[in-house]
Write a structure and sequence with these properties.
By secondary structure, this protein is mainly alpha-helical. It has one domain. Helix content is 59%, strand content 0%. α1 runs antiparallel to α5 and α1 runs parallel beside α7.
Length: 187
């Protein structure tokens, strides 16, 4: 499955594509939500098996709905733009699910339970664009196991693919901005 770097780039691309006003709060929201499903490692670390809960319900459309509605609720309480928070949360969370489905998965159950709670089936694309991130399930070795040549190669591939997508979005936004007519009275 992709690294937090890949998910952060996907969150940044979501924000760049969706937030014309470049609000920093929405950037933080997009990157946070794009990484949120992988917090399922934390309970596993606490019980001595980092992978025990990974790729469970947090990697599903059911969780996407709950998290996105929660983000919209928080936005409403803060007096922020509810529609922007909701839409960015939906796309950022969905980006995590998509990236995980497009990656090599070497641990059973393979894939993600994308349609939970409607189905317990796991889904994985037959075509992999991203490598797996190799890690130890042993909490005492979990963090150090992340630093390997294989994982470096995986991250470089993520940066090339997702960095290219982000760059394309930024260039497209810039070219659209330069072709927009000037608004009268804005000078």
């Amino acid at each position: 499955m992709p690294s937090p770097i890949a998910h952060s780039l996907a969150g940044t691309a979501t924000w760049a594509a969706m937030d014309r006003r470049r609000r920093i709060a929405l950037f933080v929201l997009a990157v946070l939500v794009a990484n949120l499903p992988d917090l399922d490692f934390l309970p596993g670390l606490l019980v001595g098996d980092a992978n025990r809960f990974h790729h469970a319900f947090s990697h599903s459309l059911g969780a996407l709905v709950v998290v996105s509605l929660a983000a919209a609720g928080v936005a409403r309480l803060l007096g922020a733009n509810v529609r922007a928070a909701l839409s960015i949360s939906v796309v950022a969370y969905a980006s995590h699910l998509l990236l995980d489905m497009l990656a090599v998965d070497t641990r059973a159950p393979y894939g993600i339970p994308a349609l939970w709670p409607l189905s317990n089936a796991y889904f994985l694309s037959p075509v992999s664009f991203f490598l797996d991130v190799r890690r130890s399930a042993d909490p005492s070795r979990f963090w150090i196991s992340l630093f390997s040549n294989h994982n470096l190669h995986a991250v470089l591939r993520e940066v090339v693919i997702l960095g290219g997508i982000l760059l394309g979005i930024l260039l497209a936004r810039r070219s659209c901005k330069s072709t927009e007519p000037a608004i009268r009275g804005s000078d």
